Amino acid sequence: MADLASRITDPNAPKAEEQPAGNEPSKPTGETQLDDAHDSGPGLVESNYDVEVKLSDLQNDQESPLYSVSTFEQLGLSKEINDGLLAMNYKKPSKIQEKALPLMLANPPRNMIAQSQSGTGKTGAFVLTILSRIDFSKPQQPQALVLAPSRELARQIQSVIQSIGQFCKDLIVEAAVPGAVSRETGVKASAVVGTPGTVMDLIRRRQFDVSQLKVLVIDEADNMLDLQGLGEQCVRVKTMLPKNIQILLFSATFPEKVMVYAERFAPNAHQMKLRQQELTVKGISQMYMDCPDERSKYDILCKLYGLMTIGSSVIFVKTRESANEIQRRMEADGHKVSVLHGAYEGMNRDALLDDFRSGRSKVLITTNVLARGIDVSSVSMVINYDIPMKGIGDKEPDPETYLHRIGRTGRFGRVGVSISFVHDRKSFQALSDIANVYGIDLIQLSPDDWDLTEKKVQDVIKSSRAKPEYAPTAVRV
Ligand code: ADP
Ligand code: MG
């Protein structure tokens, strides 16, 4: 990267980056009930390319965040829940599941702030808690609420609750996202998963009875509690809930600044935190492409298309406009790519993500709206077409968003590649800063030696098994 460092160009920054906060219209529209038949289902679905994941090896490796000493049976879950886990082929808990569950299930209930790397089963951890706390004799009475930053993540979590809870008779799970809750009936479910704006509207309109809620989960909690974004809405929702509700905060990242709010939001919580250097998932090979200038990025992206379609790929860009523009050009050049961002109408977004999950579309261009939480196991490549930035005028690099974006690959022991494009001094510096934050050694790719680039990427994507050497993860309780 040294040659790049000496290059000074004018970055001519485009418009402000899309934030998930801006994606949700304040008023839900439409009356349609959510169609949830969208998922190939969570769990270890083997992708159609040649990757054999030896999960059992990873789960026996003490250094892995997937390591555990116990079985799900030892966690004292109900028979119905255990049957659900079996059906999903969850054989052993991951570290976060094993460590956090006994604390979250204990009585009297206590709050929890839990951090664990991307793709290590945080959803399972809180879903098992939710299912263990629901009284199934009151299926239409809301008893658990999960808040998530995007429509897509809310629907995904809804589907995980339904999958693990498939043998819990009378379980009803509803998504509180724009257009999903019927105005006539309101929320009639034991577990509710929503985005904060819609949930707030439903409670205010008295369409969501929160009086018997026992558990509140905030997924992607650092993002959700950030006062620059969704924080205010989450705090407002919380003030409308029962005072003794158990609060569970989950994320792969908890920057110090947000931690202060988190501790206030979930007082007296058990805490499981990781050190900064433990955050990266070693199954993800992090690379960067040294592009000669901004304009060349597009041609390089097109050259990568063949590699992108070995598995599935997500391309992250800064703005909706550039997402649209790249799709238009790529399609004109004969490539098949989809776009998903906040300007699309809800049902359209659902259909687009369904297509991507099922493999009908394999390359998805998106903004930060999908940076967090989305779990599609076949994703083997993530491209940062633009380095994630934050702050006024996009002055600072955004290490958290970087980590979440690349975490769309390398799920639960799988391998994956991330390629970050740098093209000038600003982007180079931003990526170097991010690498320093996490202590990452980035692998350089050169657009001048295409054979070598292809080899480096293919070696990872087609490698026959996951690399077990995760960053050490001494979870501190
Ligand atoms: P995180 O929220 O930590 O990023 P997820 O909860 O989305 O990760 O889980 C990532 C993937 O791992 C999902 O596909 C999920 O079904 C799978 N998974 C979670 N727990 C287990 C387990 N104990 N055994 C096998 N697969 C699991
Ligand atoms: Mg998650």
UniProtKB/TrEMBL annotation:
It catalyses: ATP + H2O = ADP + phosphate + H(+). Residues 70-98 form the DEAD-box RNA helicase Q domain. Pfam families: DEAD (PF00270), Helicase_C (PF00271). Signal peptide: none annotated. Residues 1-45 are annotated as: Disordered. Residues 103-272 form the Helicase ATP-binding domain. Keywords: ATP-binding, Helicase, Hydrolase, Nucleotide-binding. Its EC number is 3.6.4.13. The keyword Hydrolase applies. This is RNA helicase. It comes from Phialemonium thermophilum. The lineage of its organism: Eukaryota, Fungi, Dikarya, Ascomycota, Pezizomycotina.
